[in-house]
Amino acid sequence: MTRLALICLLCIPFLASAAEREPFDDRYCTTCHGTDGRGNEGVQAPRLAGMEPWYLKRQLENYRDGVRGAHPDDIEGLAMQPMAAGLTDESIQDIIEWAGGWNYVPAEHTISGDLDAGRALYQPCATCHGANAEGNEALGAPALAGQNDWYMVTQLRNFLAGYRGVHPRDVYGAQMRVMTTGLNGENDINNVVAYINSLSD
Amino acid sequence: MVKPVSRREFLNLLAAAGGAGAVVKAGAALGIMPADAAASTLDLAAGNGRSAVILGGGISGLATAYELGKAGWDCTILEASHRCGGRIFTVRHGTLIDELGNRQYCEFDDEPHMYFNAGAARIPNTHRTLLGYCKKLGVELEIFINENKTCWVQDDAMLGGKPVRNIEYTTHLRGFVAEMMAKAMHETDMDEPFTEEEAGTLLGMIRSFGDLSEDNVYRGSSNAGYASGGFLSPGVQNDIIAFRDLLKTPFAMRLLSTNEGETGPILLQPRGGMDQITEGFLRQVGDRVSYRATVASIQVRDDGVEVAYDQDGARRQIRADYCFNCIPTHLVTGLDHNFPADYVRALKHVLRGEAYKAAFQAKERFWEKQDIYGGISWMNNRSQQIWYPVAGIHRQKGVILAAYDYGGGMYHTRMTQQERVEAHLADGEKVHADYRDLVEKPVTVGWHRMNHMLGCSARWRRSFREGWTGETEQHYRTLQAPVNGRHYMIGDQISMRSAWMESALLSAHWAMADLDRRLRNAPA
Questions:
Q1: With a CB-CB cutoff of 8 Å, which residues 268-297 of chain B face chain A?
Q2: Between residues B399 and B2, which one has the greater pLDDT?
Q3: What gap in Å lies between CA A175 and CA A192, rounded to an integer?
Q4: Domain membership flag for residue A14
Q5: Global pTM value
Q6: Fewer CB near the last or first residue (10 Å), C or N of chain A?
Q7: Whole-angstrom Cα distance, residue B288 to residue B69?
């Protein structure tokens, strides 16, 4: 009896210190990406709701493995990369399932441009991303319609500047880098994104 | 015979020296030397069963619940995280630091003096609304030591990186500047001259400011401390550091004014950690707080506000007559809402702060062996500051601040935890040679990544010189005003001086007083 009591006493500090740990919530994507992953311009975090599971998986793996978000000038990517660094295959699957339940809300348009110029610029894009920017899983190209326009502008700039798509393992990113060489300056970027906006009207 | 000097010339000299004259002028312009001492107080009409939902348990939300509750309102606070206080954040044994991508549990020894104020850390004596609440809520205060001239100043570019005492550095600096002023006073042409008496007083002031000899030359000063002796044997003066060496570091431009303005004396802190303020409010309104309740939607209606929030894996609804919202503006933009376009534009206009802090547990209070009790050592490197604690003087251990980057905190924020700690060790051992062996159990807080906040204090786009531009001020007024008379943004973010608890309280008071006035004037 005495011995049992002693063992219990020895156990208590350990149990107490384990019990003291404030529990945390690992499902924190929406802190940045907004209610139901709708995207939040305030912290430059894009819409995840409605994103194809295969594309979400690829990007989370890229971030986790340092294939994306490692370039010192990819400011938004640098913010995302440590969030994914600790993910396991299981937690990525959990996020994808969680994100699959989010209500899809097409993003609000914040950018305007020359739609005719944008249509012409979009033609090479359509080969992979589809005429209505609906995406094409077979070609690994995500939907663009309904995505936050400010996010697309940032990513096009990143591809152009070599902040994204330069890691040797980023095969799709490298393709995008080649495709963006047809864009000449901010006007072109705005115009093509404005055209993509018009496809989700 | 003292030669008169023109007043304009003299003031120019003072301003150029960055001395007291320039500082007082700037202080008056910022309105930090107020004429009378009246805390903001509220006299709200009876709530008559009205309800308020308060989004966020930061100090502005807590004060709102406290004041409205006293007036008979039915208040509910929805707090997204596991704790109230927001950027009032005291880290101690077992504290969860929920930095996204860098979650930590604090391993400091479990003792009352072993804490680190990772957010708000100083209360200026003029922040009387906050001090008034401390008094009312029974929050025990003690003096916080900001400037301690026994602390160190270190710059790789000065004296081969050897740290010098702040008192040595600033005494010599003042001596040389005073010598220049005294010389200039004799050489200046007369226009609008001082009288001989005035000029004599001025020269006396200059001599005293720099501790000059009778011939107006600086030959060192006992103000810089003694190298040895002073009690039972004559004090041996410290060697003078050459003026040119003092000018090798940009601290020449800052160190004479680090204890002026908002961080001027007297500063206070709650005994036992800044979160004692949060605890004080929670003793009054703790039963009104719903934790781990993340707001998803705010819909402002004609007769009230509907809020949806996620808690325990379910989406819940609450409806109230009015809503007070201290969620950071940059997170509000990611919620489902029905705010008007100009309001959303204003929300997007505000940038988020990037401040970063880190702390170590010290195995022994090595600074006290160097006569340091409280205060700040300044380093011209990215860790910038070491703060020594007032709490626990002469105890075995203590918690020191190892880095405080209040402007460009992303430098450390973008590092891994290991890189951050190594950076602070490498910076700190330039001041304390055995630093690396004497400190342990690091904690770091990158406010830009703290869950449910994602930023330190709001950064309104303004320039120090130009002040608030018309556009910025318009956005500010837009966010200060209620939406449809029902929804108020509050917090230090809705003030012209973000980052201070006083600003958060005054913002909440403004909103409650505005609503109270409208309710009193409304037709029955």
A1: 292, 294, 296-297
A2: B399
A3: 18
A4: no
A5: 0.90
A6: N
A7: 9
CA atoms of B54 and B490, how far apart (whole Å): 10
The pair of structure tokens assigned to B327 is 């969620």
Residue A19 resides in a domain: no
Look-up of token digits 């405080």: B404
Q: What is the distance in angstroms between the Cα of B213 and the nearest Cα belonging to chain A?
A: 55
Nearest residue of chain B to residue A81 (CA atoms): B101
Q: Specify the 3-state DSSP secondary structure of A69.
A: coil
Give Cα A198 to chain centroid, integer Å. 22
CATH number of the B7-33+166-257 domain? 1.20.1440.240
User: What value does the mean pLDDT take over residues B393-413?
Assistant: 95
Please check whether residue A40 lies inside any domain of the structure. Answer: yes
For B266-319, what is each residue's pLDDT tens digit? 999 999 999 999 999 999 999 999 999 999 999 999 999 999 999 999 999 999
CATH number, domain with residue A92: 1.10.760.10
- Domain ranges in chain B are 7-33+166-257, 51-80+292-350+465-521, 92-147+353-449
Share above pLDDT 70 across residues of chain A, in percent, rounded to a whole number: 90
Q: What is the ipTM of this complex?
A: 0.88
| Residue closest to B277 by CA, chosen among B143, B145, B392, B137 | B137
Which tens digits make up the pLDDT trace of B340-369?
A: 999 999 999 999 999 999 999 999 999 999
Closest B-chain CA to A31: B452
* Same structural domain, A135 and A88: no
Q: How far is CA A58 from CA A98, A157, B292, B438, in A?
A: 16, 21, 30, 45
Find out whether the peptide bond into B266 is cis, omega within 30 degrees of 0: yes
Please state, in angstroms and rounded to a whole number, the distance separating the CA atoms of residues B490 and B60: 7
Cβ atoms of residues B115 and B92 within 8 Å? yes
Q: Return the closest-CA partner of residue B400 out of B369, B434, B428.
A: B428
Q: Is the pLDDT of residue B35 over 50?
A: no
Residues A88 and A125 in one domain: no
B296 closest CB neighbour out of A25, A35, A105: A35
